[in-house]
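<context>
A single protein, sequence plus fold
<sample>
Here is the protein in question:
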Amino acid sequence: MLMRTDPFRELDRFAQQMLGAAPHGTWSKPAAMPMDAYRAGDEFVVCFDLPGVMPEAIELDIERDVLTVKAERRPSPGGDDVQMQVAERPLGVFSRQLFLGDTLDTEHIAARYEAGVLTLRIPIAEKAKPRRIEITGTPPDRKEIKA
């Protein structure tokens, strides 16, 4: 109903674990952001982990049925006297695209950012909701069978 997967994501994750991450702030491609997605009643909910990202550094765009989430984690402000000792948190641009099916109402997406988690709530389209179909017609004539 929702997502495209990146076949190289697991390979990238494995390479980063084995070889170490790229130097601080030098990502060669947008990094994936962890995500959960689930249906809750009449809406689809998607949550992205974006710790340390300022709300104004998050962009949400939708074109046709493709939702793009883009965020940038910038370096912490520091003066000339700051000497980095450990730099493990990735900086740079994070991006994710979701392909939304026509069963979702993309005109009414709600977005909320709280405690480093971006939550999108996408209503299920009326045409995709279960509905009962009324059967019309006349009952067949019943003839009694005499034994």
Notes: Residues 72 and 118 are 13 Å apart (CA to CA). Strands lie at 35-40, 43-49, 58-63, 66-73, 92-99, 110-114, 117-123.
